[in-house]
Amino acid sequence: MSSKPKKGLRGMGQRAVPELLRQQRFRTYFLGQLASQVGSRMAPVALAFGLLASGQSAVTLGIVLSCALAPQLLFALLGGVVADRISRRRLLLTTDLFQATTQFVTGVLFITGQVNVWALGVLQFLYGTASAYAGPALAGQISDVTVDKEKLQQGNSLIAMTRSIGGIAGPAVAGILIAAIGPGFALIVDAATFLVSAYCLSRISDSAAVLSSTTKSIRASLQEGWMEFRSRTWVWVMVLDGVVYHLIVAATVQVIGPTISQSNWDGASTWAALLTARSIGSLTVGLLLLRRIVPRGLFYGRLALAAEIPVLFLLTNGDSVPLLLACGVIAGGAMTFYSAGWRTSLQLHIVPDRLSRVSSFDWLAAMAFAPLGYVGLGVAGENFGPEAVVWLALLVHAFATIVVLAVPAVRHLNNRVTAPEPQPATTSNL
Fold first, then answer.
1. What is the mean pLDDT of the chain?
2. Which SS3 state, helix, strand or coil, does residue 1 take?
3. Which ranges constitute the DSSP H helices of 318-385?
4. Structural domains of the chain, ranges and CATH numbers in brackets
5. Is the distance from CB of 243 to CB of 369 less than 8 angstroms?
6. Distance from C-alpha of 205 to C-alpha of 288, rounded to nearest angstrom
C-alpha cells in the first residue's frame, strides 16, 4: 500500500520539473548557461572595484569597459556569419575557453598588484571579441538543443531565467568575494564559470541543423543575411523598435533612474530594491511561461513591454515605494515575456542556416545604440533636468508601442508550430 503514495509523489515531482529539464541535452546546456550568467554578472562588479581600489579613476573604468564593447560593434555581423557556417556548439565552446583565459589573466593581474590599464584594455578587447562571436551563436544554440520545436518558448524562458538568476546572484557573490578575498579572486571564479559552461557544451553532441554554405564569400553571406532580415517586416520593425528602446527607454532607466532615486527617493536602497523587484518579476513570468504557450507571443510580449510606462511615471511623480516596487515586478516580468516571444519567433520563422546572421543585426543594434543613449541622455539630464528626460522616454515608449502594435506583420505572427516556414529570401524580396 505504501508504494502507491511514493509513485504518486514521484509523478508529482516529475511534473514539477519542466519537460525540457528532464532531457539531458537541454539540461546540460541550461546548467552551463546558468554558471556562465552568474559569472558574467560578477565580472563588471569585480573589475570596477578592482580598478577603483588600485587608485584608478571612473574615467579609466569607462575606458576599460569600452574596450570590451568596441569589438562587439566591429565583429557582431561577422560573428553571425561564422555562427551560421560552423557548429554553434563548437564555436561557443571555443569562446568560453577564450574568455576563461582572459578573465583568469585579468584576475592574476589584480592579485599580483600588476594593474596595468593598457594590459587590461587589451584583455577586455579580446574578451569582447569572443562575445561578438558568442552572441549570435547563442541565439541559434537554443533551437539546436531543443529537439521538440513546440518547446522553444519553454526553452527560451528557461534560458531567460538563467539571466535573471545571474542578475541576482552574480553581484551578490561578487560582493562577498571582493570583501573576503579581493576582486582578483572574483575574476578567477568568473573564469571558472566559463570552464563549467565549456565542459557542459563538450557533453552535448552537435545537432543536425543545416549550416550555411562555406563556399560563399563573407560579403555574399552578409548580403544573404541582410536580405533575410529585410524580407520579413516583423523582424526589421522589432529591431528598429529595439533601437528606440535601448537608445531612449533603457538608457533613461539605467542612467537617469539612479539620479532620480538619489534625489526623490531613498537613494541606493530604493534603486537596489527596484532592480531586485524586476528580477523577481522576470523569474516569476519565466516560470509561468514554462506551462503555457502563447501563440502570438511577439504581439502580446510587445504589448506587455508597455509596463515600463508606470515605472517611468512613478520615478518622477510617485511617493510610494511599495507601489514602485510592484510596478517593477510587473515590468521585469514583461521584459522576460517579450524576450521569450521575440526569440521564439526568430527561431521558428527564420531559416535555421540564417538565424545567427539575422540575430546579429539585432545584437548590433543593441550594442551600437545603448552607449549613445547613456551618453546623450546623461548630457540631456544635466541640461534639461532628469524629470524632462523621463517624460521624454515615457512619451516615446508609449508612441512606439502604438506604432509597432499597429503593424499587421507583428499583430498576426503566430508561433504555434504547424509546418516549416522556410521562405528563403531572394533578391525579389528587396
1. 84
2. coil
3. 321-349, 355-384
4. 19-206 (1.20.1250.20), 216-430 (1.20.1250)
5. yes
6. 30
